[in-house]
Amino acid sequence: MGFIHIDLFTTLDGVAQAPGGPEEDTEGGFRFGGWQAPLIDDVVGEQVGAGMAGMDALLLGRRTYETFASYWPHVENGDDGGIARLFNRLPKYVASRQALTLDWANSTLLRGDVVAAVRGLRDRHEHIHVIGSLDFVQTLFAERLCDRLTLWVHPILLGSGKKIFATGVAPTSLRLIEPVVSSPRGVVRQRYEFLDEVPGVGDMSLRDREG
């Protein structure tokens, strides 16, 4: 069974809305679109590139798909050419309740029961990556349909905007699978795997007595 990886750029207070540009997602009057750009550096770029090794499918929400489809097919000869060639070649699956015209090559709309369709993708691909797609990610969290979580935490606070765990999440334990790495501009990468268990509890007062 394949793995579903969630890759997210977030601020220190958990905002993950529109990191890439001013017009990416202005819902709710969000005015900080493009907040990631001043903090990107070569270390983060290398981390993102390395994280794509082995990726054999993209799974995206509607808004992220439309943003990607308007950009990546047109930049194969630019600085992002390597990523563009990968994204353009890979199968892309789109979760949307709306009917969409999918002009980007190798794109498929997941129809009907999206949760069942996502489970089926695990039988077809080894490493499926969900990038951005914040609204759709809430469904994956709720249905426990994720295996890896990579966060790039940026040293800024925005206060408002769509947050990673905005609607809560099923109580779940995670395990850090790589050392935490900080970039020169203070972006911290954290990589986790989801465990099939709920968080444990204890009593710190008893711990103090035993010590």
From TrEMBL:
Pfam families: RibD_C (PF01872). It comes from the Bacteria. GO terms for biological process: riboflavin biosynthetic process. Residues 4-175 form the Bacterial bifunctional deaminase-reductase C-terminal domain. Transmembrane segments: none annotated. InterPro entries: DHFR-like_dom_sf, RibDG_C. This is Dihydrofolate reductase. It comes from Klugiella xanthotipulae.
